[in-house]
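Data card: per-record layout.
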Amino acid sequence: MISSNTDPLVLRKLMEIMKIITESDGAVGARIIADRMKERGYQIGERGVRYHLRILDERGLTVREGYSGRTITKKGLQELEDGLIGYRVGFIITTIDELIYNTNLDVDTGTGNVIVNTAIIDKNDFDEVMEIISAMSSKPYSMSPYIRIMEENDPEFKVPEGKVGIATVCSITIDSILVRNGIPVSPRYGGLIKMVRGEPAEFWDLVLYSGTTIDPMRIFIDRKMTSIFDTYETGNGKLLASMREIPVSAYEHAVEVLNKAQEIDIDCLIRMSEPGTPVLKAPITPGKIGLPVYAGINSMAAVKESGIDITIQPISTITDYKKMTRL
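The structure for this 327-residue chain is written out next.
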């Protein structure tokens, strides 16, 4: 097992490197791993990858296969399955808290930073991808019609040659808006919501943000548990959604703030719960109100459902809302 005392940033990279190795056909080398790490938002070169591979080798989690590269061991697969258990609690929620703190969107002016999900696609797939994203944005379960396109020479985002980056507004932006307006908010769950005849029926599955090292949305996407196209075409399927809680006393202020957010095209709230009462069968803490929202990454998940090669990074980073373009 990797020690829980290991630096958190190193742990994130070790986890991602092991995932890349398991997703590859056969042994994979440091150069390829470095390229794929960059696609997933990690700024790390071959030398850095080799350093992390040595850590994995020393702990028996990976093994060298001649000059071909590394493969993952049985012990490594178990470690990956356990989600680096020594680091499980607090990883995702810490990342979320940091992004919320660094986001400053003003709902009165529509200026400031928003939290975004990012994705990397092949240039040849761009037109088809945009068609899917545009179609998804026309539905009420879209977070925002604003996106940002990043080319290879983008000064803020690392986009590999021959690729295009796309950023969509992340639903955690709602949390940052509430916090900025003095409303305490606790991100609680990421989940799948069952849709029946175009209406949300219940949360089909839930993962606590405070109990996983892997973003719940990525888990559901990677396991192919969404059915976003079915929802789009028939009204029946499973969409990605998340839940946060606010104090009961903040209800009226939250309504006011969220109405202002609607005016700048940020609107994914499904409904507000009654105090301490489950909403869509998701439990709510006594003295709190639950706010379930559709995930801003649903359109990217729909692209993946279509079979197009896309690398998705949920809750990725922040960007200037004014640099995004309305579909």
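Known properties of this structure: Confidence is low (pLDDT under 50) at residues 84-90. The first strand starts at residue 62 and ends at 64.

See the next section for split statistics.
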